[in-house]
Amino acid sequence: MSKEEEPAEVMDNEISTQPHGMEDVEIQEWLESLDSVLESSGPEVAAEILERLRAHATVNGIDLPFSANTPYANTIPVRLQPLFPGDQELERRIKSLIRWNALAMVVRANRVEHNIGGHISTYASAATLYEVGFNHFFRARSDEFEGDTVYFQGHASPGMYARAFLEGRLSGQKLENFRRELKPGGGLSSYPHPWLMPDFWEFPTVSMGLCPLMAIYQARFNRYLEDRGMKPATDAKVWAFLGDGETDEPESLGAITLASREKLDNLIFVVNCNLQRLDGPVRGNGQIIQELESAFRGARWNVIKVLWGSEWDPIFERDTEGLLVKRMGELVDGEYQKLVVSSGAYVREHFFGSDPRLLQLVEPLPDEALRRLRLGGHDPRKVYAAYKAAVDHKGSPTVILARTIKGYGLGEAGEGKNVTHQQKKLNEDELREFRSRFGIPLNDVDCVEVPFYRPAEDSVEIQYLRARREALGGYVPKRSVRSKPLVADHDDLFKEFHEGSDGREVSTTMAFVGMLRKMLKDTEIGRLIVPIVPDEARTFGMESLFRTVGIYSSVGQRYEPVDVNTLLYYKEAKDGQILEEGITEAGSMASCIAAGTAYATHGINTIPFFIYYSMFGFQRIADFIWAAADMRMRGFLLGGTSGRTTLAGEGLQHQDGNSHVLALPVPNVKAYDPAFAYEIAVIIQDGIRRMYKDGESVLYYITVMNEPYAMPPMPGDVKDGILRGMYRFRPAANGKAKLRAQLFGSGAILNEVLRAQEILESKYGVASDVWSVTSYKELYNDGIESERWNRLHPGEKARVPYVTKCLADAPGVLVAASDYLKTLPNMISKWMPRRLASLGTDGFGRSEGRASLREFFEVDSRFITLAALHELFVEGKVERSVLDKAIKDLGINTDKPSPVIS
Ligand SMILES: Cc1ncc(C[n+]2csc(CCOP(=O)(O)OP(=O)(O)O)c2C)c(N)n1
Ligand SMILES: [Mg+2]
Q1: What is the DSSP secondary structure assignment for residue 740, as one 8-state letter?
Q2: Any bridge partners for residue 297, and if so which?
Q3: What is the strand order of the sheet 267-273 is part of?
Q4: What SS3 state is found at 356?
């Protein structure tokens, strides 16, 4: 079959004009009668008639194919297009200057340092989408108005910098140092990073797929704050700019039904559909726009397609038969991309040439005009119409699918080409062409130097740009911390937990929930607490909170819960405090991020406590946690049911011995593995102080377990040690013994260590001190910082790592055991006075009870005892026969399989 004969495999969007045996004229009559209804009675009546026709057809046995697609045309018809309120010519000139400077930034950076990178073609395709937003929609945050929240596409950042340069917010020097942040005077980070540019960027977006999901939960969190009366209800919007290729990330579309279910009409997605990603077309053999339209329409979003620019309007008008729309629906994206890089003659032949009637439509237009028919996403009037419709839309979120050309304006240097994403260098001719195309006032000689260009302060361009921003309340993006620090010290809140459980057996999870319950009642922080759970509240014994503080629901509770007669019924409420997110750790984390950054976004100190199955945290959603850290999120992540051998029964997938290792790389995450209630109390109280009183940009990861045991009282003032990572919990009973050991335990394994202490003392005459190691990460960071300082300051008094200080006078052999990988104790062993024996849980978990698991992973009291005896043997302090006997007495199978590899 030739190409012409083969029907293109495209989405279901065609308007068939040739049904079986039907004459064109008959179709024409139907179309005309619809037109006349539209004219006389309006779109609602027309829609009603079509709906009735569809129902009538179904009743009569006509099997109408389902389609969530509309034709490949603009959603907003010309007659409903509002007037463009700006000075279009002036805005075009400003946009051209931004295009130039964005390009200059990348080209210059790569001239100075080959391969420093940067992107030209993403912003080139999106410039109009952003400029219409900047000139007419994005409202800044101020004391009077919370402002719109804008997520900028990461690779378009040169455009945002170039605009800020024209706005006078970033110096030429800064632009010069794009991607060279370590240069004197500072530079600009490659992508949006609040960590690196805390006064500028608010939201990191460059790990693709995170932005859409975060934006959805941000919009939802804004509603949560309103429904709980924590901020006034406003018409502020959340705008998220995405790439069409980015939508392939599962996170991108993963939460779109939440947005429609929650009727988030404060949310607007703008998908820059340049039909290309990094390597080539997003859907060469299909149509990404139609695919996205059906996904979003299926999810009940308001979908606005902006496909064709104003130049197409008169052609459409001449096309009374709907031939053009039909033809547009036939092409696959690979063909559309080819048209972009082809001549007008080619377009005429290959696009319009499929039907003589189509050719007739464009007969009056010369080839050059055909080539220059703009796409919708490059036409400010079309983009304005879409944005206006989006902000006015009520009842559901909106997605704008805007067609653009990747590398727009780059001409031979890359416009629409597959290589364009990587284009960072332009030759002299290409630069001159770009300069001329966008009317940059630079002569042929100057322009090849690619200087930054900013018109005089009193130029009409700068005046206009400033006036527009002033009208919209100030500059965007801009990040500032607007919350007031907390004042109370909360001693009373946490004191009770310092006293132990009086012999009652409780788990650290239960202890934490007790604290949470108390915090929720506190006058200062009670309202600010945001408990977040991904369908796991009962696992953690938090169900009593359902009743006391309620589960947030934007519609309240429309049903009588099945357990209404019980004390702890499932209570949903409009002002509910708990965010019960269902089974989505990613979504819960996005809520946690929104709550943990509200101190900047909204000026509200909400304090998230996100509690989840610890294995599904760092392991599953680490990139969101990385983004949270970049965003300077404050708050608490609670890894529940943690510990490879402490969570019994659940086996290989659930038992977490990894998360404390995975928490290591995130610089501002403080990770704790506490054993006792008072340790948790000290950590949380200090965390609230550091984050919400002192304003530190840190966040906390605390593992909590489900093994019940008696919580001891705090043994004296060990707060400092708890926070710094270790303290002596129980010293040896007989300090004068000849055989000595130092034993280190964490989390629930500390109890095994305490049992080993007793065995060693009673059976082998070894007196040992037991240390609670609350944070290997803290100890490690302190160690590497000390080392570094000493290296850089050789003449000064050397700093001594905290571990070394703790163990300065601690005699005997050293043994550490935790429920996590052995690498944790190993990484601090070099700062210890002698070699360290490390026990841990490297390997896959097993479905088993705790005792068996601890035997399997060799972290129970017997193995800890053996490890101490073995170290004494290595040091020549005990005979080999003692070891042999101990192995026998302790019942240790020396031929058991290694847990690491079995
Ligand atoms: C999670 C993730 N994977 C891969 C990349 C690398 N990457 C950066 S841009 C890009 C292509 C982007 O295409 P699209 O989303 O269509 O954006 P466009 O530049 O076309 O607007 C890729 C693969 C990334 N930044 N993040
Ligand atoms: Mg793209």
Answers
A1: E
A2: none
A3: 149-151, 238-243, 267-273, 398-403, 302-306
A4: helix
Residue type at position 407: G
Reply yes or no: is the peptide bond before residue 477 cis, omega within 30 of 0: yes
Predicted model pTM: 0.94
| Lowest-confidence region among 19-33, 630-644, 800-814 | 19-33
How many angstroms separate the CA atoms of 160 and 310, rounded?
26
Instruction: Give the three-class secondary structure for 270.
Output: strand
Which residues line ligand 1 at a C-beta cut-off of 6 Å? 122, 125, 155, 206-209, 243-246, 272, 274, 276-278, 282, 406, 421
Mean pLDDT of the chain: 95
Q: What does the pLDDT look like over 69-113, one tens digit per residue?
A: 999 999 999 999 999 999 999 999 999 999 999 999 999 999 999
Distance 281 CA to ligand 1 centre (A): 12
Distances (CA, A) of 373 to 363, 378, 381: 14, 10, 14
Residue nearest to atom 17 of ligand 1 (CA): 243
DSSP 831: G
Measured distance CA(687)–CA(704) in Å, rounded: 16
Of all protein residues, whose CA lies closest to atom 13 belonging to ligand 1? 277
**Through-space distance between the first and last CA atoms of the chain, rounded to whole angstroms:** 57
**Which residue minimizes the CA distance to atom 19 of ligand 1?**
122
Q: What is the distance in A from the centroid of ligand 1 to the CA of 274?
A: 12
Pairs from 888-896 (Cβ < 8 Å, separation ≥ 24): 889/763, 890/862, 890/865, 890/866, 891/862, 892/862, 892/863, 892/866, 896/856
